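User: My collaborator and I are trying to settle a disagreement about how two of our proteins should look. Neither of us wants to argue from intuition anymore, so we agreed to look at predicted structures for both before our next call. Could you fold the first one, then the second, and keep them clearly separated?

Assistant: That sounds like a sensible way to settle it. I'll keep them separate. The first protein:
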Amino acid sequence: MHATALVDLSPARRAALKVSYTARALDGARPRHLLTGPEVRPRHGDLVVAAVTEIGRHTRLESPAGRRVHLYPGDEVVVAYAARYAPDQFEAEPPADLRPCDLVAAGGIAAQVLSARSDVAAPTRLAPVGLVADAAGSVVNIADLAGPEAPRPLHGVPTIAVTGTSMNAGKTTTGAMLVRGLTAAGHRVGAAKVTGTGAGGDRWMFHDAGAVAALDFTDAGLATTYRAPLDRITAAARTLHDRLVVGGADIVVLEVADGILQPETAALLHRDGLGAMVDTWVFAAGDAAGAVYGRERLRAAGLPVAAVSGRITSSPLAAREAAERLDVPVYGAAELCDPRLAASLVARPLVGAVGERTA
């Protein structure tokens, strides 16, 4: 008996597959062959066909087009193995083999849950059938589906990055409002989410705010950035930035997700590769203490911060409390949408850290 086997999917079975956002670059959108067997060892980013066995937290799967497709027991889905870091939901790691596992993100991430927030429902359960493979039996990884390498731009453009205290601090909304304001100021704005978990919602928000192009790390071959090598994440961020500039953006907005205590984000903030791309930082926080702490963390990393925003601005009292303790302004969503204010964030002299770095 063979330890591994290459299985052909029938046309009817292929047609019934529900393909996730993370697998959207798969040629033809639906695989023809699967590699299966007890000795198959998944890697971060490998695409897998799995059967839904039990509906839990995620009742729907995000499609390549952004539609949330309802899931039912017995459905077969195309998702990617990857780790997840989400304090408000799941901490999860890819399993060592094709054992039963969990759907840990609606964008299409398969992993084993290690811990979960106490008020979050149990995950939707998956039974992997086999890794997506080509006709020769080679496994298809999302890294194999990355977009073409962009040529290095002939010139730089102003770049604003948004990071924040944690998940749900308002980072994406802050970035989208900046895109809106800069677009209203007459700029061609490109936007990219350079870290996080594969899902299309944030990318669609950037599009809807007026970005001429919006990308995320999945376009650079990463299903998630949690547990990915730092050099790989930095290279992916550079690739996304370059693609936006070469594509005609005259200002770029980047989102650095997951919060400043997340291991990869914390390390990236101290790496020259990311800092060299960014002229201005905006910090998103949920409360005054987080805003003050985050501002100091970015200062210690030598990163120039222009403003604080995020969920904190939904509370006038919390925003005022933070403003009294910060040396940068606190702006709400409506203010970031103002073209003059948004443009001023790119041009203003910035308070930095050691050496008083300026824009």
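The second protein, kept apart from the first:
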Amino acid sequence: MILVNTDYIAGKELEMLGLVKGSTIQSKNVGKDITQGFKTLVGGELKAYTEMMNDARALATKRMVAEAESLGADAVVNIRYASAAVMQGAAEVMAYGTAVKFK
């Protein structure tokens, strides 16, 4: 499966199959949430949240690819990511793009 954030793939003629997406809502346990809260007092990277968001993007991408594969897609073009806070310490991440088949 080819994944790109452009609306084309060089040298390929594409047939659009439709929008595909994947999403997840992730949170950290209360212990990590408290320790990361203390980190905001002194500044610096909140590594537990960075890891959480990286994991969430990977899972959302995996779910998007699974949806594309179910349509018989060869690639997903024009991939985008969106995130939103759902509550303190929890975030939704969505990956979406256009599933395509090579002609």
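Some points you might bring to the call about the second protein. The chain has a mean pLDDT of 89. Helices lie at 30-42, 47-70.
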